[in-house]
Amino acid sequence: MPFSGLSRSGSLYARIRSARAAVNRARYRTSKVHETAFLAPGGIIAPDLVADEHVFVGPNCTIEAGVRIGRWTMLAGSVAVVGADHRMDDIGVPMQFAGRDPLPATTIGEDCWIGHGAKVMVGVSIGDYCVVAAGSVVTRDVPEGMIVAGVPAKVIRSRFDDEETMARHRRGLETWEFTGQYNAPRSGDDVESTA
């Protein structure tokens, strides 16, 4: 297990994670991925991926061309952003030789969590602050702040109790700054008991 024995809130962990992230960005040949983003090994990731600050892409993910991921968004392992690429309407020509249309842009907003094994079809837009349950297949746009699940994914409920709570979350993110610690105690937590 990488980093076993290291506190995830320590500066050594953050430095090692940063170094591994740089190696993985080079491995995937991505030039539009923020230096704080982490792309785990074992995936297939298009070099034109745009990933903002502190994005996490888990192991064995597949991300097609034309994808943008907002800051603080996490993709668990084996998430795939795929589809809509084989032409099926060229009569008399096998699909694998019929060519491909350009892929439409796909956007995953900021502060989202895409669960293990979820599939996001290309061309979909997932709003800010959304949660996609593990194993779901997202075939349509998802409004901001929604939790979706199923095949195809449907809205289960809002992530926030009301619009004011989501607005407070949005305002909090505007001023939030990374402290250099992963899994740092939340404000109001007893720092002594979490050490």
What's the helix and strand layout?
Layout: H1 11-28, E1 32-33, E2 38-39, E3 44-45, E4 50-51, E5 56-57, E6 62-63, E7 67-69, E8 74-75, E9 80-82, E10 106-108, E11 113-114, E12 119-121, E13 125-126, E14 131-132, E15 137-138, E16 146-149, E17 154-158, H2 163-175, H3 191-194
Parallel strand pairs: 1-4, 2-5, 3-6, 4-7, 5-8, 6-9, 7-10, 8-11, 9-12, 10-13, 11-14, 12-15, 14-16
Antiparallel strand pairs: 16-17
Which properties best describe this structure?
195 residues, alpha/beta, 5-stranded parallel sheet, UDP N-Acetylglucosamine Acyltransferase, domain 1, 7-stranded mixed sheet, 22% strand, 17 strands, 3 helices, disordered C terminus
Supply the CATH class. Answer: Mainly Beta
* Average pLDDT reading: 86
The largest sheet is: 7 strands, mixed
Q: Low-confidence parts, pLDDT < 50 over ≥5 residues? A: 188-195
Helix count, DSSP H or I runs of 4 or more residues:
3
Gap from first CA to last CA: 21 Å
Structure description:
18% of the residues lie in helices and 22% in strands. The protein has one domain (11-85, 93-176): UDP N-Acetylglucosamine Acyltransferase, domain 1, CATH 2.160.10.10. The chain is built from three helices and 17 strands.
